[in-house]
Design goal:
It is a single chain. This protein is α+β, with helices and mostly antiparallel strands. Helices cover about 60% and strands about 15% of the residues. The chain is built from 6 helices and 3 strands. It has a 3-stranded antiparallel beta sheet. α3 (about 30-35) crosses α4 (about 40-50). The longest helix is centred in the last third of the chain and has 16 residues, at about 90-105. It starts with a helix and ends with a helix. InterPro entries: ArsR-like_HTH, HTH_ArsR_DNA-bd_dom, HTH_MetalResp_TranReg, WH-like_DNA-bd_sf, WH_DNA-bd_sf. This is ArsR family transcriptional regulator. One of its GO terms (molecular function) is DNA binding. Keywords: DNA-binding, Transcription, Transcription regulation.
Length: about 110
């Protein structure tokens, strides 16, 4: 994928925040939309740009489409590192890890 698409995708703060939120878990567009104050079409457009840049991949399961970071992508690896120190993305990344742990914890 061209570098221009990657830089265009990363130029948007909402898209960087979505990447941070997807850093530890896969989510549907609806779940992403619940976290961010954006309309469903806006979330969809952001996810389309991220997918076109090769930063996220989607998988349809029944009536839902799940999004996750593209594994082994150098940009995502560098982004995860940067998210740790970013004042905006860091809390989103920690929230994502916490949510992922809750989802995998067996119900008692």
């Amino acid at each position: 994928m061209p570098a221009d698409q990657i830089f265009e995708a990363l130029a948007s703060r909402p898209r960087r925040e979505i990447l941070a939120y997807l850093s530890a878990q896969e989510l549907t567009a609806g779940e992403i939309g619940q976290r961010f104050a954006m309309s469903a079409p806006a979330i969809s457009r952001h996810l389309s740009v991220l997918a076109a840049a090769g930063l996220v991949i989607s998988e349809r399961r029944g009536q839902f489409v799940f999004y996750r970071l593209t594994p082994d992508n150098l940009v995502n690896t560098l982004s995860r590192f940067a998210f740790e120190v970013c004042p905006t993305a860091g809390p989103l990344q920690r929230e994502s890890r916490s949510n992922a742990k809750r989802k995998t914890k067996p119900a008692t």
